[in-house]
Amino acid sequence: MKTNKTDDYINPKYKNVYRHTRTTVSLLNYHFVFTPHYRRKIFAIPGVGERVEQLIREKSSALDVEILNFTANVDHVHLFVNMPPTQGIPQYMHAIKGYSSKVIREEFPQLQAMAALWTRSYFVSTAGNIASSTIQNYIDNQKKSEYKRRT
């Protein structure tokens, strides 16, 4: 049996699982990085990191987004998620940032003076178990196969 060498580096917890609906089959994994406003070190405040994670998990669950990994560093968050094809990236980020910002600033007096908890910007990258070059080769080979079948 042929195995993919990258499987050795993938935590089984993060194995790619396809989402099935009536009309689609999808695998949409995204890596997000976002920061507090002015890169303030809000996660140095005891309890903030755990509470932010809890709030983001709650909102993500409500949006049918599965969190595969969450890490809050001193001044930024890494978030690895699996999203349905009906969920837009900007709408998701707006929802989790807005919800967590409102609740965190209400619960932690040190953060109430901040006009906004998060910056408007974020980094996002797609992630999956297949490289872009592999997909391109597959598509190219499909064209050749289709042409051969017609001739």
From TrEMBL:
SMART domains (UniProt xref): Y1_Tnp
Stretches assigned to the Transposase IS200-like domain: 25-142
InterPro entries: Transposase_17 (IPR002686), Transposase_17_sf (IPR036515)
Top-rank lineage group of the source organism: Bacteria
A Pfam family reported for this protein in Swiss-Prot or TrEMBL: Y1_Tnp
Protein name: IS200/IS605 family transposase
Highest classification ranks of the organism: Bacteria, Bacillati, Bacillota, Bacilli, Lactobacillales
Gene, per the UniProt record: tnpA
